[in-house]
Amino acid sequence: MSASLVLASFSGAVEFIFAPQESNVTGGKEVGGFDKTMELLIGHIEVTVLALAIALLIGLPLGLYLGHKGRGELLAVGIGNAGRAVPELAVIALVATLIGIGMRNVAPALALLGIAPILVNAYVGVRQVDPAAVDAARGMGMSELGIISRVELPLAIPTVMGGIRGAAIVIVATATIAPLAGVETLGDFILNRNVYGENGLLAGDYEGTYLGSDGLP
Amino acid sequence: MANPALLAAAGEVGGDFFKERSSGTLPCQANETHLFCFDWAKENIDRYGTPTMQHLELVLFSVAIGFVIAFALALIAHRTRWLQPPLLAATGILYTIPSIAFFFLLLPVTGFGRDTAIIVLSAYTLQIIYRNTMLGFDNVPDSVKDAARGMGLTNRQILWKVELPLATPEIIAGLRVATASTIAITTLVVLISAGGLGTEMYGSNFNFPTAILIAVAIIALMVLAFDLLLLGTQRLLTPWRKARPR
Questions:
Q1: What is the pTM of this model?
Q2: A151, A134 in Cβ contact below 8 A?
Q3: CATH for A47-185?
Q4: CA distance A44 to chain B (A)
Q5: 20 to 30 A from B243, CA-CA: which of A118, A150, B131, B214?
């Protein structure tokens, strides 16, 4: 890990994704290649989808409910601010140390990072809905649950989607360091530099960035 | 955690960590599942000095650079309205690049170490500070600006004597969020050998909770301290707001 490290080129990294190659650190053993990349990519997507689903299941109903009731503004704002200040590495480290490794433990931990943006955006989105629309729906005899799901949620969709997107970015990014807690993701290429070499580092990184920036509309 | 490659990777960062932990005669060593080992904490608290200072240094540099750039952009956009959407989009794109990937993307250009860390960290603060500064400017009532103009103030005077003081709460709010998230993201710069408190988490190889918990506690204190400091600054800069109950 010295500063004078010879770094891989872009083309080297792209080759690494598609064809196995000898790295400068493995002493002739071939690493990388399309199959390995796919395996890690699937692992990455798997843990991301699982974590995002958990975050959605917890964050969305809670945010919608608090926004509908107009209660718990302090709670929502507090969760939003605290969520930004949580160090991702600390979450992964503490889960690996105290609870255990593997998908079952890591996915809920990643979900924890995604709950804050989803909850806050759902809350803000529902609060921004025109009260007249809600009153009209209530006057038409809609139940409270109907108001939430058929009036407030559709009107708040742009804001809610913004929150889901933010959560997805955080989770995809943090899944990169999930190999530290025993879940094989694309971060494996980056973190195990002494296995995959410099080309692997860049390859994993390009893929991770691509997933993160284009994964969701 | 029997992944030899991982052990080796962690060893590169905190190789001496394991030696120090295993050579002593501390009572809680036999049982690594201790949630918190006070004896180890007492003996080793000084090892957190350097990482904490590095962490502080990185945060201060990054937020300061980010603030100067974002504030300058906001002033430009404030004067030339048509620049606002492209600037918001540009800072927004920087913000959507996943943090860990961003560090490694810059490696071929700027190499391992502090420079890369500061570039990435300050890029992340741009969006938050820029957006809040613009929000602050937009929230200044037109009537106040008209009154200032009626009193004979020039555009420059209106900006510095009327708009900026009235926008201060929003600007400081942006700085508070930016500082808190920068303190959190700075734990990751250990991956590009730039130090910081992440060193102590990464180096513990994730089987010794005490080391990680101490680092987390220091980070939490740092977030709290910066938040109070900025809140105090806001009170000092906008004394007229004290009279108004919240």
A1: 0.77
A2: yes
A3: 1.10.3720.10
A4: 14
A5: B131
